[in-house]
Here is the input.
Amino acid sequence: MKYAVLSDIHGNLEALQSVLAEVRRRKVEKYICLGDIVGYGANPNECLELIRSLNPVAVLGNHDAAVCGLTALKNFTPLASKAIIWTIRELKTPGREYLASLPLIRSLGDITIFHSNLVCPDDWVYIHSADDASPSFNRLSGSFGFFGHSHRPAIYRKNGRRVDQLPGSEFFLSRQWQYIINVGSVGQPRDRDPRASYGVFDDESGELKIIRVKYPIRKAQKKIRAAGLPERLAARLAEGK
Ligand code: ZN
Here is the structure.
């Protein structure tokens, strides 16, 4: 099965539309969504509608949980909290109910998906390194784990007891090993590349590609400013951080 893997859309409709236009060229059969559909960006309802129309296999992100009252605001930076409070006011009921229905972890065959980590997925502790990934490998039963949350693409491979981070953006993954993969963020990349990021994964051939997509950043920034959201949330989109 060929999957498009999307994460951390964060209410950025321009980024999501541009990514979906790119996905359409790739004969994808199923969508995976790794959470944080809302928060930060100015179009939470539109992003939710679009994502739901794709009927994805999806998990709950920390911003999604916060807007549903499922995690406390004190766990967020002041900047993130402001955006969450704004999003709570904007969000329509069907979208909120959809988010509230999402689980923290889901499995499809030997793929496991989660937003933050597999050890305690609702403590929202980040995986930023091979060392951070190691405890989650101990909880991974199949060959492939996909996660989001850091907004930075990264591929970790476990070979025996050793966990390595692999360089590059195109891979052939082998079931000989286990992998934990971050496909980057659609709506707010933080690896200093402002282009939207997502993944295409074929679990039969093992081919994985991390794909970067240009989108109309200025338009997304304009909407953030017009909504009265913090200026920093607009500025950071152009910086990719
Ligand atoms: Zn996020």
User: Anything to note?
Assistant: The chain has a mean pLDDT of 97.
